[in-house]
Amino acid sequence: MYDCAADLAALLAGIDQSMSDPTRLRERLVPELRRIIEEGRADAEQRLLRERDGHACAGRLCGLMDAVIRTIYDAVVKRLYRADNPTAAEQIAVVATGGYGRGTLAPGSDIDLLFLLPYKQTAWSESVVEAMLYVLWDLKLKVGHATRSVAECLREGRADMTVRTALLESRFLFGDRVLFDELASRFDREVVQGTAAEFVEAKLRERDARVAKSGASRYLVEPNVKDGKGGLRDLNTLFWIAKYTFRVKEAEDLVEAGLFTPDEFRLFQRCDEFLWRVRCHMHFATGRAEERLSFGLQPRIAERLGYGARGGLAAVERFMKSYFLIAKDVGDLTAIVCAEMEARHAKRPPVLNRWFGHFRQRFRAPDLEADEFRIHTGRLSVRSDDAFERDPVNLIRLFWLSDRHDVAIHPDASRLATRSLSLIGPMVRVDREANRLFLELLTSQNAPETVLRHMNETGVLGRFVPDFGRIVAMMQFNMYHHFTVDEHLIRSLGVLAKIESGDMEDEHPLAHRIVGTIQNRRALYVAMFLHDIAKGRKEDHSIAGAAVARKLGPRFGLDAAETGTVAWLVEHHLLMSMTAQSRDLSDPKTIETFAGVVQSLERLKLLLVLTIADIKAVGPGVWTAWKATLLRTLYYETEMVLSGGHSEIPRTDRVRLIQMRLREQLTDWAAEAFDAYAGRHYPHYWLKVDAPRQLKNARFIRATVAEGRTVATAYETDQFRGVTELTVYSPDHPRLLAILTGACAAAGGNIVDAQIFTTADGFVLDTIVLSRAFDRDEDELRRAGRIATAIERALKGEIRIAELVADRHPRKDRPRTFQVAPDLSIDNALSARETVLEISGLDRPGLLYDLTTALSRLNLNITSAHVATFGERAVDVFYVTDLTGTKVTQPDRQATIRRAVMAVFEAEPPAGQRAGGARRSGTARARAGAALPGGEA
To answer: By what means is the activity of this protein regulated (predicted)?
Structure first.
C-alpha cells in the first residue's frame, strides 16, 4: 500500500525556509507532487480492483488530495509568504466544498475549494491564494474555487441555492479553524433555520431539470452514473435535503433522526458504494471524468467488477441488471425521503405529485370501496400497518384502487408494500380475486402505465408475476433498445392505451380507427404485457413467451380463445414488423405468405396495433413515418387477401387498367407515343409501382429522351414518409446498384429502399429512397442534388466509386463494442420469381456498397433491395435472379454466393455507421410497392 505522507513530508522539508520566488517554488513542488498523485491513484486503483469497495476508493482519493493540498498550503504559507505574527487580516481557512467537501472524490473529479477570509481580501491573502492555485493548475487538476469572507459567503448563500448547497457540504481542511467554525454556526443560524421548505423545493426542481437533461428514465440502457435518474446525484440530493431539514452532520445520523430504518440506511450505503465503485472504475478505465456508462464502456466495467456470463445472460447484461436494480433502490429511497418531508411540511404536495409522475388528483371519497384503505394528505394509503398481513390480496387491491380512482399512492403505503412482498406467495398468485383485480388494472382505460410502473418499482408486480420478475432491470446489450425489458413492456402498454384513448389519433389514424373494432381487447393488452416476457432465456423469446402466455392466460381469467389469441400474438409479435421491413411488399407471394400465417382480419388488426406500440416503446427516434408507410401497406394488402379481394381481376387485365388510368392523365401524349412507352415496361413494373410514381416516371423519361440524354437523375422530398426519393435512368449495367449505393455512401445518403426495374430496350429505371438528413426541404434538396451529381458522374465514368467510399469510410483497426455473427439465408420459397438473400451481420460504413459489389461480381441481377438496421445489426434483403432471369437453385452456385457474402464480413472494419450515412436509431428499410391509401398507420 502506498503511503504518500513520508514523500510529502520529505518534499516539504527540502524546501528552503527563505524561498521567496513563486516560480521556483512551483518548479520544486510540481514534478514531485505529480509523481505522488500518480502513484497514489495507481495504488487506489489496485486496491479498488482487489477490495471492491467504491466508497473506500473515493475516500482514499480524497485523502490523497487533502494531503497534497496541505503540502502546497504549508509550502506557500510557511515558506513563501510566512507571517510569524499574523494580523487579523492575515488569516485564511482552506475549505473543501461540493463533492470534495463530502470527503469523496473520483479520479477525474473537480477539486472545489473555498478560501475563507475574515474580511475583504488583502495583498497577503491574494498572494497566498494565487500561489496555491498556480501549483494546482500546473498539476493539471480541475479546480473550482472561490475567495470570500464569512459575510460574503452568507450573502451569496441566501441568494444562490448552488452556493448554499456547497456551503452545506463544506469541510474544514486547514488554516484558521475559528474562522470556519464562525461560518458554520452563522450559516446554520442565519441561512438554514426556517428555510427547509424553500431548500427542498429548489433541490427537487433542480433534480427534475437535471434528470430531464440526462434522461428522464432510470432505465435508459446507457445511463449517466453521476447525473442520471437513480444515479449518485440523486443520493446526494437525498442527503442534502435530509441534512438541511434534520440538521444532521453525517449520513449515519439519519437513522437516529427517524428518516431511515437501519435496513433502509444499509440500502443507502449499498447503493452509494456500488455507484461509487462503478464511477471510479469508469474514470480509471477511460483516464478521464467519464460519467456516461456507454455501450463501449459497459463490457470493460463488467470485467473490472468481476462479472461473468450466467443463466443465459452475458457478463455485461448481468452487470447492467445489477446497476438498474441499484437505480430502482435509489428511487425507493427517494420516495421515503419525500414522504417524510411532506409529513414534516418541509415540502408541499405538488412537488410530490411531480416526483411520482404527475398523477391527477380527482379522488372521490364515496367511491372508495375497501375498508382497509383511506385518504391521507390527498393520497391513497392503508388504515393500519397490518392491512396486507390480514389480506395479502390488498397488495394488488392497493394499485387497482389507485388506477380506478385516479389517485396517487401515499409513499408510506408504497414503503409498506415493499416490506410486505414475502406475503405474495403461490396462494396469492392463483387467487381469483387478485387476478381479477390485476387484469382490470392491466386493461384499464385510465392510465395503466403509471400505476404499473409504480407497482413494478415497489416489487409487487414482479412478485405477483414471477415471469415478469425475471426481466426486471434486464437490459439487452445492443444499440436498438433504449430501455430495460420491464420498462419497455410498461411503456408499450402506455402507448397502446394512448392509441385507444385517441391521444395519438393524428399520429396513428389507422390504428386508432381499427382499435375500436377489435373484439379481443383483453387479449391485446395481455399480449402487450407479455410479448417480451421471455427475454434473456436460451430459447427463442417469442416461442418461450407463447408458452408463458398459455400458462398465465387462464390464471388471469382469460378463456381458452383469449388465451390462444394471446399466445399467438406473443409468438408472432415480430412477424409484421419483419415482413414490412425486409420483404418485397409488391410481391404477391409476400402477402400470401403473411396472410397465411395471420389467417383472420381480427388477428391482422391486433398484430398491427401491437406492432406499432412495440416499436414506439423501443425508444426515441425508432418510430418513423417510413415504418408507418410500410406497415400500412402490408396491412391494406393483407386485408384485401383476407377479405377475398386479392384475385378478383386477372393480372393482364389489371395491367391494362393501370395503363389506361395513366393514359388518361397524359393528355399531351399522342396515342402512338404512349403505346411505345408502355411497351418498354414489363408487367411487374405496372403492378409494383404506385400511380403517382408512374406518372412522374413517364414524364421524367420522356424529357430525358427528348434532351438526347442516356443518363439522368431526378429527386424530391416526401415529408409525409420522412424520406427523399432519387430516381435514376441509365443504360443497364451489371454493377449499377453497387454504383448507386457507393455514390450514396460517399455523399452521405442513408438508403432505406431500392426499386429496380429493367426496360425492354435495355435501360434501367431505379428509385432509391433515402432517409432525410435535414428538416428543411431546401437543405435536404441541396444534399439530394449532391448525391444525384455523384451518381451521374459515376455512371459516366468520371469518378471511381470505390475510391470515394474508401476516402469517406477508411478502414481502421479498432476494438469492436458489439459482436454480431454474420449470417446468410438463401430462400426460394418466399417469392414466385426471385431468390431471396437475407444477409445479417455487424453494421459498418460501406457495408451495403460492399455487399452489392460482391453480388454484382457474381453476375446476380438484383430486382429489389430492402435495407434495415436494428442498432448495430444490419439486415439487408436482396431479391435476385441469375442473368437468365431464373432463381438460383444450384447448390454449388449457392455455396459460391455464401462464400462471397461471408468474405465481405470477414474483411469488415469495426462497428460504425451504415454505408450511406449516419446510423439511424431503429430500422430503416425497403420499398412501398403498391398504391398506398392515405393516412398513417
So the answer is: Uridylyltransferase (UTase) activity is inhibited by glutamine, while glutamine activates uridylyl-removing (UR) activity.
